[in-house]
Structure formats: C-alpha cells, structure tokens
Amino acid sequence: MKSSVISGQISNYNNISSYNDFKDDNKNYILIVEDNKINKAILSKILSVYYNVVSAENGKVALQILRSGNFSFSAIMLDLIMPVMDGFTFLHEISLFDEFKSIPIIVTTGNDDRENEKKALELGAWDFVSKPYDAQIILFRLKNAIDRSQLTAFSRLKYLAEFDSLTGICNKEHFLYEVSKLVKSEKPGSFIFVRFDIYRFQLINAFFGIHEGDLLLKYIATFLSDFVKSFTSSICGRMNADVFAFCIPFSDESAVVDMVKHIKKMLKAYPLNFDIVPTFGIYLISDLSVQPDIMLDRAALAAKSIKGNYMVNYAFYNDKMRQEITTEQEITNEMNKALEDHQFTVYFQPKYDLKTRIPCGAEALVRWIHPVKGCVSPGTFIPVFERNGFVTKLDYYVWESVCIAIRKWLDCGKLVHPVSVNVSRVNLYNKDLIRQLCELTDKYNVPKELINLEITESAYTESPEILQQMTEKLKNCGFVIMMDDFGSGYSSLNILKDIDVDVLKIDMRFLSDTHRQQRSENIISSVVGMAKSLGISTIAEGVERKEQADFLASIGCDCVQGFYFARPMPIEQYEPYAEDIAL
Ligand code: C2E
Ligand code: MG
Ligand code: MG
C-alpha cells in the first residue's frame, strides 16, 4: 500500500503555539489526499504537530487506505485535481460507503476556485481551505469539522440506542423507559400495556422473503405510531422480530375490543397473500410498582395463553398465569431429585381385544408420587418436561422400568402381553433414541415385539420428515409403532400416506360431542375401514361406556383401552392381566 505515516513535532511553523489545547497523547489520524509533493509536505508539517498524518497520492489510493481498515481517520484533507482518481470522483465513491459518512472531508482548493468549491460542497465536502495554506485557518477549520462530526456521531449513536433501526419507532429499552415515565404519576388501572405479534410471522419470511417481512414490519410500525397518537398520552415500540408493544389509556374492555378490531383491519388491508393474524397479550397496569419489563413478561404470558387459537385474538393477564409459571419453576427445580429418589412410578392400563374382550396388552403411563402433593398425573408435568428437555430422561426411566417388569414376568415363565410406552415428540430429535431403546431391550433380554412405541400424532405436524425417518428405523429394529392420539391433529390423512405405522390409536375423547354422535361414528368407522385396507390395526382409547365398546366392535376395531374396561393401575394390580392366558 502506498501510504506513509508522518508524525512529528514541528515547533516553528507559522506561530502555531496557540493551538496547544489541541494536543492529545492519542493523536487523531488525518488522511491527506494530494498528488503535489510540495503541498503535501506543507500540509503534513502543519498537521503533524497535532495529528498523525497519513497521505495518499490520489483518490484511488485513499479509498484503498480507508477500506483497509488499518486507520480510523478523524478527517480527510482532499485535493481536487489529481491523476488516476480526482477529488470529485473520490467524493462520489466515498459517499457509497455508510461507514465513512461521518468522516469530515475538507477540500483544498486554489484561490478563487469558486466553481470547484461549489461542486465539491454539493458532492458532500464539509468545508474547504484555499492555497496558499494558512496554518491557523487550516487547524481551526479542521478542529471545528472534527468536533462537528463527533457531535453528529454522538447523536447518531444516541438515536441508535433509542430507536429501532428498521422501523424508526422506539426500541425495547427506550420504550420500557418511556412507559415507566408515562405511568409514573397516573392512577393504577388507568393504562394498559399491550404486546402483540403476528401468528407464524416466520412463514411470511419463508414464503415471501426477508425483504417482504421487513416491509410488513415497517407498515405495522407506521400505523401503530399513528394509532397511538390518537391518545393524549401513549407510546409504542418494537421489542424484537415481529413483537410490538404499546401503552395507552384504558377505559373499558369494549375499547380494547375496538382497538383489536382496528389493528386487525389494518393488517387485513396489507397487500400480501397471507392471513396476517395478530395475537394480543394485555397487562392492565393495576400495580405501579411493577417494572415495565415485568409488564412485558406478563403481557407475553397472556398472549401465550391464546397462541394458536384462531378465534381469540386477545387475552388479559391474570395472576393464575403467574401461578402457572411458578408451578412450572417448582416442577423444574424438583425433577432431578424426584428421578433419583424414584418418585416416578409406572402405572399400567390394560388394553382389551374387542372380539374376545380379554386383555391383550397395556400402556405404561407414568405417575409422580410426590412426597407432598401425592399422586400427580402426567398432564401437569409432561408438558413442562417437554419444554425443558427432561422428558427424554423420564421416558428412558419408564422404558427401563417396563423392561425390568417384562423381564421379571418372563422369568416367572409367563407368556407376556406387549406393553406400549410413550415416546415424547422431543425424543424424535434424540440422536441416541434407537441406541438407547436397543440397549435396554438387549440389557434385559426383552424381545422387541413386546415393547410397542406410542408416538403422538402432533409430532407429525411439527416435523414430518424426522418422524418418517425415525419410525422407519425403529420398525426396522423390530419395534411396533403406534400412532397415538390419531385424529387429534390436522394431518391425520397425510400421516397414513407418509408414515408406515403398525397401529392407529384413535382417541374417543376427541369425538365426545354427543350432538354429533352420528358424524363421529361415521368418521371413526371410515378411519377403521381405511386402516384395515392399509393393513394397519386399530385401537380406540378413552372408551368409557358399553355402547362405545359395542359400536367399536361392530365396525371391526381391533382393541380398546379405557375406563370402561380398566383404569391405569400400579404394577402389582396389573400383574394378573400381564399374562397371555388366551394362548
Ligand atoms: P396418552 O398416551 O394418550 O395416554 C392415555 C391417557 O388417557 C392416559 O392419561 C389415560 O389415563 C387416559 N385414559 C385412558 N382411558 C381413559 C378413559 O376412558 N377416559 C379418560 N378420560 N381418560 C382415559 P394420563 O395417564 O393422564 O396421561 C396423559 C398423557 O401424558 C398421555 O396420553 C401421554 O401423552 C402422556 N404420558 C403419560 N405417561 C408418559 C410417559 O411415560 N412418557 C411420555 N412422554 N408421556 C407420557
Ligand atoms: Mg399414549
Ligand atoms: Mg393417546
């Protein structure tokens, strides 16, 4: 690189002693762009008392030096007439780089060169000094320009610290600060803190591209700031991604309904072939001691309570939601010790053959026998364990308990019925799943066909390919695969097409609407018929009444599981059912 750093002290040049206040041990860097050796030497001499000077012989070299990133320049002294790249072209080129916009450029011109000065100023030069050089004027102009640029950089930093760079509305930190100011002297209950986002916004990015997603976010920010301006005191901001929040006065719930309608209407009007559905979580600021970031958390909790519910677009926060979080935290704190202390235990719910009405297997269902709370059902803790990942450990524990039980029964010489175990959807992402299951069946020498694996249908919606690959591998190992909760999701028919399962478990509870009993029966009957034609067996679970069992038998359903036949029970009670007496 053709550059040289000239730095030094020159004390006797044109009475410059009065500029001592410029002096700084960490001298700023100045870039001189000048082809004329004499001019360059004079300028360098003047400047090098107070600055570190780097020089370039034309615009092209100057750009190279700038782009090398080796120096952080406080200003550029630019000659206009140079070979290779003149000053005008340089001014144009440098304007294309955002990162150099705040460096002041002072043009050095010949005397009375008005036209060139004008043109240079028009191209973005900050100031000019004319030849022959006057050291004082140069140093003053340079200092002023640097001071001004630092001020501009400071206000830009301040702006960046407070406003969202994409939409120009308040960013999260500034918004929360403004909320605290806004509600400080208000009465409790007179403001609401609203948080909203767009349901499945990531799909917009995926379908239409990030740029379209950004345009939508800008549109939202614009109408949101217009909307909040219609209140005397209000503030809005973008929290992150597609999450926006605003704080407005609260009168009554009907005004909230109107607000939701208005924003939905604005989103509907946006020209994109996508159903843009917002979800609002609202915290009524009833306690002024609550910090704004906690308000945001509470509004987020409220929004979470209706996530995925197309019919309901807003929810107010209530203390029950906080209680749920506390419970979740308690469960998380206790889970590891509970596993070590064997507080988890496996219950067995017998399954019955519908033709013979005798037991033909069981489902293993976990229970938490809590020292204080007593018997806790999985509906309370499995969703928490699925969120924090602990479910993989618990599933393993249940599988091992089942293997131990089967081994024990086999050792007693019994002909054992298969037992199905639940495999959490989280376990589908477990790379060791197959190895773990095979190791267990090998360790306890349990034939694989005695362990059936129940995988919930909803896992298909989340990740069809992973489920497809996993079921195939598990089947190849010799396990029987059951599609649990079949009919509960939206993709049941696709599952039949894509996934090679052995058994469909149809949950009767999804079809318990008595007004539509005929319809439900028709659906079940066609599902059973379809499964049959595909060579898949069927089991109905949640069977609570004799008529249900009779109906299922009449349509050719193979097995049933439900309170009508037997409830889940501890191992000692199940043992009499475990043996295959039919053989
Ligand atoms: P699931 O796998 O669909 O299990 C069937 C659930 O239905 C069980 O609830 C069972 O007690 C209940 N049930 C059976 N027959 C009837 C009936 O006639 N009427 C009614 N109302 N309910 C009936 P449970 O034991 O509370 O388990 C709930 C869910 O928790 C299970 O649904 C399963 O998804 C999950 N779960 C249970 N144990 C485990 C486990 O070890 N690992 C994993 N990952 N999940 C488990
Ligand atoms: Mg199950
Ligand atoms: Mg089920």
How would you portray this structure in words?
By secondary structure, this protein is α/β, with parallel strands linked by helices. It folds into three domains: 2-161, Rossmann fold (3-Layer(aba) Sandwich), CATH 3.40.50; 172-317, 2-Layer Sandwich (Alpha-Beta Plaits); 339-582, Alpha-Beta Barrel (TIM Barrel), CATH 3.20.20.450. The protein is 45% helix and 21% strand. It has 20 helices and 22 strands. The strands form three sheets. It has an eight-stranded mixed barrel, surrounded by five helices. Helix 3 (87-94) links the parallel strand 4 and strand 5 (105-109). The longest helix is centred in the first third of the chain and has 28 residues, at 135-162. The model is unreliable at 1-23 (pLDDT under 50). One magnesium ion binds at residues 363, 422, 454, 484. Ligand C2E is lined by residues 349, 365-366, 377-379, 382, 391, 395, 398, 422, 424, 454, 484-485, 509, 541-544, 561-563, 568.
